[in-house]
Amino acid sequence: MRIPNIICGFIVMCIAGFFYAQSYQIKEVNVAEIGPIIMPRIYCGLLIVLGGIVVIQGLLDKSAKEERENTMGYAAASMGFVLLYILLIPFTGFYLSTVLLVAGLLFFSKVRNKILLISVPLGATLFIYIGFEKLLKVAIPIGSLFS
């Protein structure tokens, strides 16, 4: 998967660079506090680094064999998961939808370790809860199911 890795890595880096540049339009609340400007820049910076790693791996991959997986099917199914996630958020709320999305994507990716299937979705949701709701005071949708 040499060429797809290079292309996807560059696409991720370009999108992350675009959003990093857009983060300069976010108005800072106070210089002394952690504001809404920090998290997008951290995430975009991480995406740029990770995209660069994927590009480097693609460039260094000298294997001649290409994997014959149905990559378009995986991409379409992943998009379906994300679309379902977006449709569920107003009803089930952000946190439950996020746990279901991450667990579903892990299961779809053939992860069968029960510890990972439970800890990764809960850990990601806990990270979002602490980072956004507690530190940044961002209002997170609860969903009509719980209100």
Automatic annotation (TrEMBL):
This is Tripartite tricarboxylate transporter TctB family protein. Keywords: Membrane, Transmembrane, Transmembrane helix. It holds the Pfam family TctB. It comes from the Bacteria. Residues 7-141 form the DUF1468 domain. The chain crosses the membrane at residues 37-60, 81-109, 115-132.
